[in-house]
């Protein structure tokens, strides 16, 4: 059996979450896809993130997501948000900051 790419805790929590909400997982991501980018918009409710992130934990897909930097610096909550795959994003509206962030994304070893 191969090692999990994602957290065992979040995998078990996701199984529990799907069970109590009556959801089930559909088709899996094909194994030959090594990298991809998903854009989830528009959000229809605040629950979209919970179900989407839980599905990726169940599929053992290591997802990274961008979030305002302030969310990752709050004690306790920041650690929780980062454990869900959050990458802090500073909302500077400059091309240079966007290009620097994209460069760090490309060079990340766990991407």
Strand content: 5-15%
**What is the CA-atom radius of gyration, in angstroms?**
15 Å
> Class by helix and strand content?
mainly alpha
Provide the residue-averaged pLDDT: 80
Q: Helix content range of the residues, please?
A: 40-55%
Number of separate structural domains: 2
User: Uncertain segments of ≥5 residues (pLDDT<50)?
Assistant: none
Summarize the biggest pleated sheet: 2 strands, parallel
Strand order of the largest sheet: 1-2
Global morphology: globular
Count of strand segments: 2
Order of helices and strands: HHEHHEH
Number of helices: 5
Give the terminus-to-terminus CA distance.
22 Å
Can you give a write-up of this model?
With 111 residues, the protein is mostly helical. The protein folds into two domains: 1-24 and 41-63, no CATH class; 64-111, no CATH class. 45% of the residues lie in helices and 7% in strands. It has helices spanning 8-21, 48-58, 69-73, 77-83, 95-107; strands at residues 65-68, 86-89. It has a two-stranded parallel sheet. The protein is globular, with a radius of gyration of 15 Å. The chain starts with 7 loop residues before the first helix and ends with a helix.
List key phrases describing it.
111 residues, mainly alpha, two-stranded parallel ribbon, 2 strands
């Amino acid at each position: 059996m191969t090692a999990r790419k994602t957290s065992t805790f979040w995998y078990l929590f996701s199984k529990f979450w799907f069970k109590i909400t009556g959801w089930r997982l559909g088709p899996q991501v094909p194994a030959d896809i090594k990298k991809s980018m998903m854009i989830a918009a528009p959000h229809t409710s605040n629950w979209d993130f919970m179900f989407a992130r839980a599905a990726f934990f169940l599929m053992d897909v290591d997802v990274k997501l961008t979030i305002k930097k302030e969310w990752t610096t709050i004690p306790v909550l920041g650690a929780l948000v980062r454990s869900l795959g959050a990458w802090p994003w500073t909302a500077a509206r400059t091309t240079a900051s966007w290009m620097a962030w994209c460069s760090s994304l490309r060079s990340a070893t766990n991407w």
